[in-house]
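Same chain as my last thread, 256 residues:
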Amino acid sequence: MRNDLETRGRTLGDRSPSPYARSMSSTIATATVLVVDDEPMVREVVARYLELDGLRVEQAADGTAAAEWLADHRPDLVVLDIMLPGVDGLSLLRQLRAAGDVPVILLTARADEIDRVLGLELGADDYVVKPFSPRELAARVRTVLRRVSAPASDGRAMVDFGRLRIDPGTRDVTVDGEDVELTPKEFDLLYTLARSPRQVFSRRQLLAQVWDSAPEYQDSATVTVHVGRLRQKLEDNPDNPRWITTVWGVGYRFEP
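reply #2:
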């Protein structure tokens, strides 16, 4: 187990922190990220960049080792390769979603489009295609952690549409008084749309605002899949949505 799962904070603690580490909030800077990948070089490089941001990083070389570690620990975010020996990445993602809403960023091969879509449908918050820029991945991690750790006093107002209530402070969503469980990225997408009713957002705009990305770096199908998941969770009839509607040829808007 010790060879499969290593704590990197001690071995790279003498490296100079990045400017991001100095500017990040104390909550984010002390966050723990679990990196699960069977390629040692990938784990080492990802861990190095995340630690330069001040994050604590744990490593797992396969899905089985990751599942054993997760049985006793709760990370703040998981970077998860889909193709893993033992318990594969998608199976591990299912376990994570069954247990809670810890954010997950998938690492995928360029040819694994079906797996990427399935991963998003299972509740992954984001994905990065191999080969990838470690800086880009670190930026994605910072973006997700920053969003999920936003304090209740950040000034964002509750959105109330009668049946549907969205509280950005507690990140709670209710429909007809019943709690709706959303992943962090699903919540961010919903709140972005709902706080600007009837405004049409293109997929490019949503990638920029919610994922801090662009179509040049990330497939816009990411937005489509997340919209579909929101409709399944919020709408009485997902095929004829009441709240999140499609503006054909342009994007999406929220109907109050």
